[in-house]
Amino acid sequence: MVWYVVQRCIGALITLFIVAAVIFAATELLPGDVATALLGRDATPKRLAQVRAQLRLDRPVSERYWAWFGGFVQGDWGYSLARPNQAIIPLVSERLLNTLWLALIAASVGIPIAIMLGVIAGLYRDHVPDVVISVIALVGMSLPEFVIGSLLMLVFGVMWAILPAITIVPPNASFGQLLPSMILPACTLMIVMVAYILRMVRSSMIDVLQSEYVQMAYLKGMSRQLVIWRYAIPTALLPSINAIALTVAWLIGGVVVVETVFNFPGIGRLMTAAVGDRDLPLVQALGLVGAAFYIGVNLVADIATLWLTPRLRTQYW
Amino acid sequence: MKQLSFVSWLGIGLLVVHVVMALAAPWIAPYSPTAIDATQAMRPPSLLHWGGTDRYGRDIFSRVIYGGQIALVISLTSAAIAVVCGGLIGVYVAYIGGFIDNVIMRLIDALISIPSVLLLLVIVTAFGSGNGVIIAAMVVSYLPGVVRVVRATALEYVSRDFIQAARIRGEKTIHIVRDELWPNILDVVFVEFAMNASWIVLAVSGLSFLGFGVNPPTPDWGLMVNENRAMLLLAPWGILYPMGAVATLVIALNLVSDAIAKALGLDRSRGVPV
Amino acid sequence: MSTPLVEVAGLSIGFRRPSGTTVPAVHDVSLQLMPGERLGIVGESGCGKSTLTLALLGYIRGNGIRMQGTVRRQGVDLFTLNESELQQVRGAEIALVPQNAGQALAPHLTVGAQIADVLARHRDITGQHAQHQIVQLLRDMRFGDPDQIAVCYPHQLSGGQQQRIALAMALAGAPNVLVLDEPTTGLDVTTQAHLLLLLDEITRNTQMTTVVVSHDLGVIARTASRVIVMYAGEIVEDGLVSQVFANPRHPYTRGLIAALPRIDRPELPTAMAGQLGHDYTYQRCTFAPRCAFAQQICDTVPQLLVTEAMHRVRCHRWHEISNEVRPADVGTGIGRDEGSITMPVVLDIKNVAATYQRRRWQSWWRDDGVDVVRDVQIQLMAGQTCALVGESGSGKSTLARMITGLHPPRRGEIRLFDAPLHADVSRRSVAERRHVQLVFQNPDSSLNPRHTIAEILHRPQFVFFGRSRAESLAYSRDMLQNVRMDEAYLTRYPSQLSGGEKQRIAIARAFLAEPAVVVCDEVVSALDVSVQAAVLRLLVDMQQKSQTAYLFISHDLAVVRAVAQYVVVLYAGQVCEYGPAETVFSAPFHPYTALLLAAVLSIDTTPSADTLPQRIDVVDGAVHGCPFVARCPVAIAGVCETTPPPWQPAATGHALRCHHPRDVLGANQHPQV
């Protein structure tokens, strides 16, 4: 077990290392270099050379990669190009914290709802509750986040005006100050999340209900409640863990649009801003943070699945 | 092959309507999608302008219809490329296994873990927002997921005896991948195609919404929402029509992929566009 | 006469197709189950026996519907009970031992917990009391360490252990009726023998009423006193086991018994014509399309007619035909001529050993994998069949993989026509690959579902002979004729074929390569008895035409008896007995061969239990000494565990590997042959 966890962690680190290489290579491949991008029309040969030296662009690629990656690992993420003298770490961590709150609210409300709806839909397969839930899921998956967000904003922010339509507090506001502004964006994320998770829970519930061991539980005279709660649901939820992880990981990208809709000061807005400003060090950092989040969430899901599946747990113990 | 249900037909019908509207846009659309008429700005829907007009007086209905062309061309093309390339890679690595499989899958894992929005934003900013670039960006973002799904499916077939039989016959890898495995993966490839197409429609509109997609004044749905969002209360038709168009197209694609999956006995509920 | 415990009357069950039509699975079945009765239900796949079994618990699977009839217990129809009333019956009055215990046990609960659920539900036993009861039940199931087993998850147990857990779970509710659905299918022969013995003990002691459902006539003979033969959803014959098996009246039962390979008869069993398809109707005799005795009267519906006390048969002509002898009743007489040493050796397997290497990171601290095949030496001769016998895990399949070049031997070599055969198939020449063909166990998996039969048959011809599609067609047609199939099959896909037909195609594909050696890996074990006989016959015919050498891998000694001239008995990767079939099937036996022979189920002899050792939980450990020592009833303490047994050849070509001298082994053992 310990060995398995260690092995998975090493695997995750290797993936992260590759991600770093991919991100670095991708930014290297971009046409023109950072200096030209940064200076834009102000580019004079002299200024260019100056900036290149400042950014160590005159060094060979491999050396810059190691310097960059080494710095990254050691907690030196460098400085933003577009925001002079702004260190990346505090910038990212402040925004990341806001987004994580958003994601936490969406996940902690959305996951239980999704599981409940998925289980109900699976139990009532092809009957009214399932049809209703499945239609909701279909609509949730089919509407772009900006549509859901705009509609929520229109109804709750403008027509009824019970919640702030857009965020007007600064990025470093406290959680209490941010909370009202977080509700609508979190709901938007939640709707999409619930749609995906419930479909997965429903389908694994249907699989399990058709399994021989559920049939056998009925045939040994177990009551319906017992069969569902003791025999069906625990195994039906196991494959959903990885699916939930995927959906949670999706949040980090999903926030980009949602935060733009609600003007929420999170990591998603920072991403669009960084890309728009061609702030390469910041883009690289955000890419790595996003990937690390994805890898981390999946790692946790893998280990949780392992821990909860007797067959795997005993095998790797 | 099971009988198609009402919902499946609904999906197919919706998709056909979208395709026909896009193909026949020049004949259906009453106005040019980019024609500006300051005298007609911000008009609500009427007989003259079925969808109303935006603040430049452009006809919303015409713009929505032309917007379908862009959405369909980009999504279907990039989904097709992603699915065929990703499918072939997936089948190939599943069959040969070993070192190459390990390396490629590590790379795929890495690509998947980078948030696709960021990937899209970076590619579009770097190379401009032409249709070609957007298609390429979509392929890069969605191909890894296809590789993973197809590889997993192919692995189930690789251990089957008919593959062993082919190996014992001394068949070349190309024959085994192309003639023995690929036909069996085709079901999954079809479902992946419809599913990815729906995600790509969402991604394209999202990108335009963020202002990174196709360039104005191209009549793109996401872009229209972005442009008209400021006049949410004054001219809600400006965003409701394009929103409805995106939603119906994605619902149609989702229903169609559900229908294909059901007809082929597959489970497609496990996909998430990361 | 007492009242029946369960009474089925006029029961018909159908399954609804998506197209809206209803396909009948059980048709107008009536039967009475008396207290203390031991009923057997036998029939081939698709005959409706499983549907009928579940109906005994008031259960119909999936989209099935009861069209007519009742299943009454104490006068009350189970199908009229509501959910909670049914729950009082299931598990408490009538308990089921499911077909596939591995699938029927919930993977996330310990087996103890799953038994505890039954105790709590039906007998109100919980807590400490329940723990005692569970341990007692497991002890009754002959588990050596019941406390340990109770906290195991199903996947930690072997197939035989899982089946015993399922039995314990069924008995936990203290039912009046125990229904066992294919209780031993999928188990090794010796495990099956143990389980049947255990079942016998338990049910005889308690006078429990049992219903055993099986496709295997031998299992029915061992477990039932009365048998019902089902065909196409109907009962075609019903009588005491002694009557039905000794004196079958229905042409189907007669055919079924004739199709059964016998361990005591070295000849091919008789194949039954046709197969159970969907082409029957209940407007006439359902068996008439396949029946050799069918006449005009068979176009009307036959009733169950009483032939003698306790014996009924659904046949218009049972009386007239009872004296008509068909070849079916006397056997084919196609015996296997004894092997002759004079035939040239085609494939020479010389001292091969094989290991499955663990993944490298694991081998850091664990020792390397144990050899799955050790020092095996076999010679295959043209036109002769050498059978390779062993239970699962004996290394049979690994040997097949080595011969076909999919798994490299760790030691030793394989020679084809006295030239070394490369270990890796991709390095073998076209001729070498052509000469070594493999027919797989499972025809569902060995034919590409997306290729037509024409394509499947074309490919080897293209690879080995460079024939174009058009050129190959004529050969494919010829070959189809050889395997007795119509050329209309060429345009079909494997899913449109029955299991037996698929296996014929697989055989046709192998023979289109004009091979010198065909490895048949359990080729008939997935097939029904009547189909199995036909495929065996086909294999023998093909061999006689082409003088191909067969390596016939099987776990079924009766089948081996029917086709093989030579027999190799494999245990834990090691040959423990080898020789011409006649010598292997007669004393002296290796103790393992003796065990295998004792475990063979037969319909006309009752094997004695004493030949089976009492140890059920077997641990194979001794790598240094004899691998069989843990299960050997005659193991010599202090010798067998530590010293590898010597190879003892005899002049007859027979040899065995044992510490006991040949003459001692010959004198001590009397398996039922």
Protein architecture, described:
Chain A is an all-alpha fold. Chain A is 80% helix and 0% strand. The mean pLDDT of chain A is 84. With 274 residues, chain B is mainly alpha-helical. Chain C is α/β, with parallel strands linked by helices and 673 residues long. Chain C contains 24 helices and 24 strands. Chain C is globular and about 75 Å long.
Which SSEs are present, and which pair or pack?
The complex is a heterotrimer of chains A (317), B (274) and C (673).
Chain A: H1 2-29, H2 34-39, H3 45-54, H4 61-74, H5 88-123, H6 128-142, H7 145-159, H8 175-209, H9 212-219, H10 224-262, H11 267-277, H12 280-308, H13 310-316
Helix pairs in contact in A: 1-12, 5-6, 5-8, 5-10, 6-8, 7-8, 7-10, 8-10, 9-10, 10-11, 10-12, 11-12, 12-13
Chain B: H1 6-23, H2 25-28, H3 60-96, H4 98-113, H5 116-127, H6 131-158, H7 161-169, H8 173-209, H9 221-228, H10 237-263
Helix pairs in contact in B: 1-3, 1-10, 3-4, 3-6, 3-8, 3-10, 4-6, 5-6, 6-8, 8-9, 8-10, 9-10
Chain C: E1 6-16, E2 22-33, E3 38-42, H1 49-55, E4 64-73, E5 76-77, H2 83-89, E6 94-97, H3 101-104, H4 111-123, H5 127-140, H6 146-150, H7 159-172, E7 177-181, H8 189-206, E8 209-214, H9 217-223, E9 226-231, E10 234-240, H10 241-246, H11 251-258, E11 305-308, E12 311-313, H12 318-321, H13 327-330, E13 345-355, E14 371-381, E15 385-389, H14 396-403, E16 411-416, E17 419-420, H15 430-435, E18 436-439, H16 443-446, H17 453-465, H18 469-482, H19 499-512, E19 517-521, H20 529-546, E20 549-554, H21 557-563, E21 566-571, E22 574-580, H22 581-584, H23 591-599, E23 647-649, E24 655-657, H24 662-668
Parallel strand pairs in C: 3-8, 3-9, 6-7, 7-8, 15-20, 15-21, 18-19, 19-20
Antiparallel strand pairs in C: 1-2, 1-4, 4-5, 9-10, 10-12, 11-12, 13-14, 13-16, 16-17, 21-22, 22-24, 23-24
Helix pairs in contact in C: 4-5, 4-7, 5-7, 8-23, 17-18, 17-19, 18-19, 19-20
